[in-house]
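If you are new to this repository, start here. Below is one unmodified record pulled from the training split, so you can see the exact layout before writing a loader.
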Amino acid sequence: MTNNDKQGETQREEGTRREDRAKETRRRGDAETRRGEPVPASLFSGLSRSTIILGIVSLLSDISTEMVYPLLPIFLTETLKAPATAVGLIEGIAVGTASVVTGISGWISDRLGRRKAVALAGYVLTAVSKPMIAFAGGWPVVLGARFAERFGKGIRSAPKDAMLAESTDEIHRGRAYGFERAMDYTGAVLGPLIAIALVGGFATRTIFMFSFVPASIAALLILSLRERRGDVAAGVNSLRLSLAGTTREYRRLMVIVAVFGLANSANAFLILRAQQWGLETRWTILAYAMYNAVAAIGSLPAGAASDRFGRRNLLIAGFAVYAIAYVGFAAGSQAWMVWPLFALYGLFPALTDGVAKAMAVDTAGSAGTATAIGVYSTVLGVTQVVASYVGGMLWDKVDASATFYFGAGLSGAAVVLLFALLPARTVR
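And here is the target side for that same chain:
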């Protein structure tokens, strides 16, 4: 490359950086102007067409996933005779895979300037991996199937969340994420209810096969989205999970997310705990559906509340709920206690899932939107691998209550860190 070529490339890069800074300045100015607007009268005000479609996609995708998930721990331990450590390993690797791939997928989406194509690839992979569990003859096959399914989730998550952010005004960002989470958890209610309806008449493996249908429809709906490259917030050009360009608040948020992630073991342990207390499979699935119903009902109001009152305060409430619920699962012993504990536990994702992603976007700084979400998901997922494996080891080697006391203690530590390290309001 000649000196003139190098000089030209340097000038083009500098021009790109100036353009990005100008866009960011305009976006901040627009946000400041909009901040004086009146609060929307309806919870659904400010939701774009893309947000609605992505909400429906999440609804169908989670119907598919949750037709399988509440049956899976029972299928593993009773049909395939897997130990609790294997259950924790499978779910930990599944969550961790999704989260690590989310980080890479976010960077690829930013680098290509494409959201729709990357998200579509993820939804297709998730759909085609569903039938694999139905043919499993041992728990390692389930591990492979869950790995493939969550790999697809990892591919789609960051570009999907970035599309939500880029198709929504900043003053409605928490509302948009809250709506998507509400639709996701509505699917998580309908999925178990469909499973309950099918349990009596169909074998578990057949129900796993049926889950392919809503997952396929979700993938097809992605094709109906309109994407404009000018809406894509570009990030860094190299694949580095170095937090370059992010704010101090974002980096502190990642520390807190890592601490909480070590507490956040797989929900499969809650299902096994309900079974341990003597609740029948059908009622256990219904209790799990109730948990998702609480999350669905609470997600949109929680997202809207975070727009008005600050993200940190909602996260504090959510982590505190998690700690209290886990103490209940640790100390309880009666089947009836499953119902209030699952209901309480449903407030945790409602208060945290969408709000934490919105806060990651708020504090991303000059890093790309999808990259910021991807790094957040990677940190959470990697620590959840450890949490789920440790939870399984504690279950097998100590007792079930140790799994929940461990999670409650670390969640309490995350609450303290939120108070100490982050302001109530963080707006990008």
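Two things worth knowing about this chain: The domain at 45-225+242-421 is CATH 1.20.1250.20 (Growth Hormone; Chain: A;). The mean pLDDT is 82.
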